[in-house]
C-alpha cells in the first residue's frame, strides 16, 4: 500500500485485502502517516511527504544492484532499461535514506520483499497522485513492476484504487479533455472521422481543458459558461477562496447534482438529478475495468430527473429531433463507436455479472489482465513497455521559518470528500474536522487536544481545533476537508498542480500554527 | 463501562504490569505460537512493525490477559481494557465484547477485593444456599448468586474470586468457612468417592493423596499406558480406541475412535482439546479426576497426541475450578520437567505439550465450538457446523475435542486392549461410566459402574434415597426429570434413549418431597435464560419467555395448561432454529417436570 489509507478511504476493498493478509499475505505500507491501513502492515515506512519518486528510484536501484530483477521479463517485454538505470544512479541507499527520512535497512527490506515475492501488487491512491509530480509518481512505481515482472499476471499488478464506483467509467466514456469514448485519441484523424460520421458533426482536433485549466481559462475570462455535473469544485478545489471567486465571475453556471452543494448555491440554474444507484438505469465501470449494469428501483423524488434525460432534454432544445433515447439505446450506439465495448450487450452484462474491457465482440469473454500481453510471445503485437525516467522534485510549498510545519490532507472513514454525500448522516465515530499533530509539536506549541489554533498558509488563515495524534511523525500535521462549512481547509492548500494529470498538490502545504489567545488572556 | 470507541483512558501501573506479565509468562510448552515477538515495535517515528502474523497470533492471549488484569485489580477498568487492546493490538470494542461475555469479568469495582459466588443452582438450592447468601450478605460480604459450581456432592458450594490472591472454593460451605477463606484459608479437596477402591478403575487413584504427585502416580501404574501406546504405531492406537467402542462421556456419546481417525487423516498441524468446562448443573466427575488424578489426564492426552499426530494439547477448564486448575498446572510443569511433555516426549521421538486455558464463567463454552472460539480469544459463541472441528477446529486446524472422562478411559483401553475394554458392558455402551449422585441420597459423590447397572443399583451404591423420592433429574439442566418407574432401567446409552431420557454427563440428582419444584424448575429456566449466548434469536428470546412463564406459574399461580401451550411452542422453535445444544435442550427439563405433574401446586 503506497500512499493509500484504504482502511478508511476504501473500506470495502480493504476488507478483501485484509482477507489476503489473514491468509498470510505480507503487507507493507508507505505513507508519511502511520495510518489505519499502516497499522495492519508488517512494515510501515513513514517517508517524507513528496519523496515517493526518491523512494521508488532507490528501491529500483537496490533491486538492480543486488541482481533481484527479472531479466527474462525485462528482455522480452520492456525497453529503455539503460536510460532508466542511468537516471537512478544517484539513488543509493544513503541518498534515498537522506531524502526520504527512512532508515536504509527499511528501504532494502521493502525492495527485497517486493522483488522476491512470487506475486506482488502495488496499490496506491491519492497519496501518490495529489502531488505536483503525480503522474511521474505513478510512472516511478510502474518502473518497479517492469523490473520485477509483477504485472499482467494472476496475483500481481499495479492497482490504483479508485475513489468511486465509476471513476473508470467516466474516463472510458470520454469525460477526458483529450479522449473520445473508449479512450480513443481526439487528435487522431481516423478516429475523429469515425465519430464525425457516426454523430454527423465536426469534432475539434485540439484537446479540451481539464479542470485545473478550466479554472485558469475562467480566470482569464475565456471560459464564461460552465455546465457542472456531479462535481463540487466550490468545496474541493485547492486555494478555495480563489476558486469560488472565479465561479462567481462566470456569465452562466449550471449545476446538475443530487444535493444543493456549495457550487449549486453559486449557480444560475440548478438541475436536480436522480441518484446514480437505485434511481438510474445504466452501467458503471469499476477499477478492474468491469462494466456492470445498474438498475433503477425507485423514481427520483420531486422534480429530479435521470441525468441522461436531463441531457437529452437540453439536446432536444438545441437540436430538435434528438428524442429521448433510453439508456440501453445509447449504450448500443456507444458499442458501435467504442471497439473495447463492442461485445458488451446488456444481455451479456447481465448474464456474466459484468464484463471486463476490452471485449470487442459478442463471443469475446472479456479481458482479465489488461497487461497480460506483456507475457505473450509476440507481445500481442504491441511495442515493449517503456521504462520511464522520473526526476524527484520536492513539493512546491516549502517550509521556512514563517511556515515551519507541513500539512497533508486525506479522508476519514465516516466521511466522503466534501461531505455532499456523507454529512447528512450521523456517525458515532465522527469527531469533526481537526488538525492532527504529533505530541512533540503540540508540546512545543503549548497546546493539547481541543485547543483552538490559528492555522496560516501562504494563502489564508483559518481557525482549527487540534487533536494530538501519536501516529504522525514530528513536523507533519494532517487534516481532512470533509467539513468545509466549519473548517475551510482548502483555503490553505496550494494550487500547484501536475501538468500531466491536472491534479493539485493537496498533500503538501506549508503552515504555521498559533495558539488562539484564550478568553481573558 | 468502557466506551465502544477508543478513549484516552490509560491503565494503572498494576494493570500495565498484569498485562505485560501475562503475555510474558506464556507457557514454555506452547508449541503452536512459539517465537512471536511483541505485537508492535517502533524504530523512531518513521518505522513500525506489526503485521498479520503478530496480530492474529496474539488474539488467543486475550482471555488469559483479561484474567490477569481482573485478578490483579478486581475488575476490568476502561484504562485496563485499553492497555489490553494496545498490547494485543485488538480493537477496544472487541476487548469489551469478549470481556462482557463472561460472568467473572466486570467493568465496575465489585465493592470489595473478594467476590463470594454462592451456588444457588439446583443441588445447592435444596441444601441451604439461599440462607447462606442472606447470612453472608448481612455480614457485609459482596455475594453473587452463581450457577452450578460443580461441587454438588458437597453442597452448598462457594467460589471465592479474590483479588491479588489465589481463588479458592469452599465446600459444604458455612458462613464461618467462607469467612476463613476470605482470610486466606485454602481448601484441600477430599475425594467424594465412597466406593470400595477395589471396585474402581477410572477412579482407582483418586482416594490416594500420593497419586497427585509424579512419583506417587508412577508407583501406582502411572505412565504404563503411554509405554504400551508408543510400542504401537499411531494407527494401531487409534484402532484400539475404535475397537474398544469408546464413546464420548460429555453427553453426546460420539464414537471416539471415529473422531480420532478423522483428525489423524487431515493434514497437520492438528490440535487436541480437552473439554474440562464442566458446567452442566449437577456434574462434578471431571473435577474429581483433575483434582485427585491429574497425571492420568495428562498421560491419556499424550497418548492421544501421539495417536493423532497432534502436537498441541489444550485443557479448557472452567474458571470456577481453582483447585483442579492448580493441580493440573503443577502436574503439567512436573511432566515437562521429566521430559514427558515437550519436544521429545519420553525419548519416544514425538512432540506434544499441553496448554491450560481458564474459562471465565460461561456455561455455553462447554459447547465444543464455543470453547474453540473462547480459546482463540473471541466471544464464546458456538459456530455453525459443518464444518466440524475434525476438519476446521482450533485456529482452523483439524481438532479432536474430548471430555475429561472420555480421555481418561484411553489409559484403560491401552492397558486392556481395545477388545478387552469392549468386554465391559455391551453394545454401544462399553467400559465403565462415572455418575454424579447428588441431592437426596445418603452418600452423594462420584460413582463408577460398568455400563449396564440399573438406576436402582447406582442409587443403592450411594446408600439409597433420603426421605420420600419425588423425582430424579437425569443428565442435568439439559436433561430431564424421571420418576421411580425408571428405577430398573439399565443406565446404558441405548436403554436410556429407549425410555425417553439421556444419561448426558452422568447427573443423577435425587429429589425428595421436601423440594419446592416450582422454585427448582424456575431456577433451571433462569439458568438457560442467563446462559444463552444470544446468538440465535429463538434461544435468546425463547429462554427469556420460558423463564417468565415459570415465574408466572410460581408467583402468580398461572394455570399450567395455558402456559404449557406456549412452552411447547418455544421448545419447538428453539429446537428447530438454534445452532447448538443449548437451545435444543433448554426446554427438556421443564416440559418433563410438567409431564410428571411436578409443577403448579401438586406438591
Question: In words, what does this structure look like?
Answer:
The complex is a heterodimer of chains A (521) and B (603). Chain A has 521 residues and is of the alpha/beta class. Chain A contains 19 helices and 20 strands. In chain A, the strands form 7 sheets. In chain A, strands 15-19-16-18-17-20 form a 6-stranded mixed barrel. In chain A, strands 8-9-10 form a 3-stranded parallel beta sheet. In chain B, the strands form 5 sheets. In chain B, strands 14-13-17-15-16 form a 5-stranded mixed beta sheet, with helices on both faces. In chain B, helix 13 crosses helix 15, helix 21 packs antiparallel against helix 22 and helix 22 runs antiparallel to helix 23. The two termini of chain B are 45 Å apart. At the A-B interface, strand 2 of A face strand 2 and helix 2 of B. Strand 2 of chain A pairs antiparallel with strand 2 of chain B, so a sheet runs across the interface.
List the helices and strands and how they pair.
The complex is a heterodimer of chains A (521) and B (603).
Chain A lengths: L5 H4 L1 H12 L5 E3 L12 E3 L6 H14 L5 H7 E2 L1 H7 L5 H8 L3 H13 L4 E4 L1 H4 L4 H15 L8 E4 L6 H6 L6 E2 L3 E2 L3 H11 L11 H9 L5 E5 L3 H4 L3 H9 L3 E6 L4 H4 L3 E4 L9 E4 L4 E5 L12 H12 L8 H11 L8 H7 L2 E2 L28 E2 L18 E6 L24 E3 L1 H7 L6 E5 L4 E8 L7 E5 L28 E7 L6
Parallel strand pairs in A: 1-2, 3-14, 4-5, 8-9, 9-10, 15-19, 16-18
Antiparallel strand pairs in A: 6-7, 11-12, 12-13, 15-20, 16-19, 17-18, 17-20
Helix pairs in contact in A: 3-6, 3-7, 3-9, 6-7
Chain B lengths: L12 H12 L16 E3 L3 E3 L2 H5 L5 H12 L4 H11 L3 H8 L15 E5 L2 H4 L3 H10 L3 E5 L11 E4 L6 E3 L4 H8 L31 H6 L4 H7 L3 H11 L11 H9 L5 E7 L8 H8 L1 H15 L1 E8 L4 H16 L15 E6 L9 H9 L22 E5 H13 L1 H5 L2 E2 L2 E2 L1 E8 L5 E6 L4 H7 L7 E6 L5 E3 L10 H6 L8 E6 L4 H15 L5 H20 L3 H18 L3 H5 L2 H8 L8
Helix pairs in contact in B: 1-3, 1-4, 3-4, 4-5, 10-14, 10-17, 11-12, 11-14, 13-14, 13-15, 14-17, 21-22, 22-23
